[in-house]
Design goal:
248 residues, alpha/beta, 6 strands, binds ligand Z5A
Length: 248
């Protein structure tokens, strides 16, 4: 966890989650958004799942080693992810939001829905029950889904990994990653109020500009300039602000 700026104000903070397939650039983009929010005077907490709190980081080691899957398949994994999330939400996310910080989280429950649900065949009933217990009504204010062709994402991840062995999830084949991408696109289409699908191809700064426009429009209530990466589209991106006040 990294706290980027001193706390200001007393209202409840904003909760943004980042999702996407392998190598989509979530960590890179969270860092860039945290820097921009800090410059805008917002206190931000950067965190991740699985992990983010001391207890959840211990469970992270088990999960990435593949032991959860080995003992009980996707259901056991879903239970372990839920245990980690429960600790993370209670000890880190809720307190940070309560003191008015923005929380930027690398993966959250959409990852469970996609990896353990869509790809692991864990039943919606179990997933819903786990979601009720771990997060209740505390849904993210915004979920940024980074969308990238599978081959590009896998190439990026391989470069970053270097000589290290792939973990339990990185070791899956290209077909798995294609289904993953489809599943995330379906979530984005089904929940447009909460989710935004962002084209994650291009230089990190360009992708960061795309995300920043959405954050300004949906959460800061600032008018948009022009959508980056679309020369000649000046002014087309102007929309009425959808900024919503989050109850304290
Ligand atoms: N999982 C699950 O199954 N169920 C759950 O409920 C949860 C998680 C919460 C956690 O892996 C695994 O747990 C995850 C799903 C599962 N498995 N997978 N795969 P993790 O935390 O170790 O890693 P990750 O979340 O998958 O992250 P990632 O995909 O490996 O990386 P990323 O954060 O999306 O990307 P990055 O680190 O920012 O960038 C990757 C490389 O690309 C790096 O070298 C960057 O410098 C480079 N990069 C980034 N952006 C760009 C651009 N724009 N151009 C060129 N190069 C770039």
């Amino acid at each position: 966890m990294v706290e980027q700026a001193p706390q200001t104000g007393s209202s409840r903070g904003r909760f943004i989650t980042f999702e996407g397939g392998e190598g989509a650039g979530k960590s890179t983009q969270i860092k860039l958004l945290a820097e921009r929010l800090a410059k805008a005077g917002q206190a931000t907490v950067v965190t991740r799942e699985p992990g983010g709190s001391p207890g959840a980081e211990i469970i992270r080691h088990l999960l990435l080693s593949g032991i959860g899957h080995l003992i009980g398949g996707s259901e056991a994994e879903a239970l372990l992810f839920a245990a980690a999330r429960d600790d993370h939400v209670r000890t880190l996310i809720e307190p940070a939001l309560a003191r008015g910080a923005w929380v930027l989280c690398d993966r959250f429950y959409d990852s469970t829905r996609v990896y353990q649900g869509k790809l692991g065949d864990v039943s919606p009933a179990l997933l819903n029950a786990l979601q009720d217990v771990t997060i209740g009504a505390m849904k993210p204010d915004l979920t940024v889904i980074l969308d990238i062709p599978v081959e590009i994402g896998l190439k990026r991840a391989a470069v970053r990994r270097g000589a290290e062995a792939p973990d339990r999830f990185e070791g899956e084949n290209a077909d798995f990653h294609r289904k993953l991408r489809d599943a995330y696109r379906q979530i984005a289409a089904a929940e447009p109020e909460r989710c935004v699908l962002i084209d994650a191809e291009g230089e990190p700064k360009l992708v960061a500009d795309r995300i920043w426009l959405t954050v300004q429009d949906r959460m800061l209530g600032w008018p948009q300039a022009k959508p980056p990466g679309k020369p000649g589209a000046k002014g087309r991106g102007k929309t009425k602000s959808k900024a919503k006040a989050r109850s304290a």
